[in-house]
Amino acid sequence: RLALCNLGEQSCEYLGSVLQSENSSLKELDLTNNDLQDSGVELLSAGLKSSHCELEICRLSGCLVTEEGCSSLASALNLNPSHLKELDLTYNHPGESGVNLLSARLEDPHCSLETLRYVQLC
Questions:
Q1: For helices 37-48 and 9-20, what crossing angle results, to 10°?
Q2: CB atoms within 10 A of CB 1
Q3: What residue segments make up the domains of the chain, in order of their start?
Q4: Which residues of the chain have pLDDT under 70?
Q5: N or C: which end of the chain has fewer CB within 10 A?
C-alpha cells in the first residue's frame, strides 16, 4: 500500500519500470490519494503495457487523473489485456471520453478487466 505517501511523477516512473521487469510479480498496487496527475499515470501505464506485468488490482483513487490519464490506461489495457482485473479511478476527473475509453475495455472479450470504479466529479 502506497496510499497517501506524497508520490508523484518520479515515483510512477520507478513503478512503471518495476512493472516492466521480467521478475515482476506485483499483483496489487494502491496509489490512492497521491498527486500522480496524468503525467504520472502515463509513466505507470508504460509498465502496464508490458507483457511482464502481472498487476491485477490498481487503485488510483484521488490521484488527479483526467481524460488524458484515462487514455493512457486504456491504451495499456489494449496492449496488455491479460492481467488487470480491477481499476479504481474514484475521486478523479475522467470526463465522459475517459470513462467511455475505459468502459470499452470492459466489453472486450480479450480484456480481463472486470471492475472499473469511478465517480464523476463536477
A1: 10
A2: 10
A3: 9-117
A4: 120-122
A5: C
